[in-house]
Each structure stands twice: as C-alpha cells, then as structure tokens.
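Worked problem 6 (solution included).
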Amino acid sequence: MSVVLLVLAAGCGDGPAPGTTAARSSTSQTVMVSSLPCDEADQTRVALDVPGPGRPTPEEAVAPHAGALELVARDGGERTSVLGLRADGSVFRVFDVSRHDDGWWPDGYRECWS
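Solution. The predicted structure is:
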C-alpha cells in the first residue's frame, strides 16, 4: 500500500540548478532545464512512502508517479533529482530520490499547484 502526503513546499527543498543541462534519456537531444516554472511559494511538495524493494535506477523508482512525463535524472550521488518533462521540454515535476542498500527510492516530488 502506498501512502502519499501532501504538504506546501514554500521555500522547502533544493530545486534543479538554474541552467542545468541534462541529456534526455530517450533521445540524443540535449534539453536546457532550469526549474519549475513557478515561484517556490506556488509549489506543492508531495512526500512518498512506497513499498519496497528499491529500483535499479532513479528513473525506474519514480516512473509509477510520472504518468506520461519524460524522465531525466540529474547525477547527484546518493541523493539526486529526476526531472519530469512535458513534451515541449519544460519541467512539470521534480522528483527527489535516494539510494539505499536495495536500490533507488522516491522520497517525494515538487510541482506547481496553480
């Protein structure tokens, strides 16, 4: 059973670094992503508590929560972000994931609530 907690993320968490370049996983194109297209005060944070085990990659860990979004992982070591991109390449959702002994786990995500 999955538990999803919804909290307002005014000023919480680290977003993607402005001007970050990430390679799309399904193509060889490069996408310029900066952050969610809204102020931090207009972002919602959803904390995820999902059953295990962890997944082999950050993208696989968040895929059940991504719908049709294209997923692009940022290399961040044991804790990283996975960007959920719309078809036009804009960021719709930013997932926070962490690596544990049994694989990658989604911690939650941020998105614009308006």
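Discussion: The chain has one helix and eight strands.
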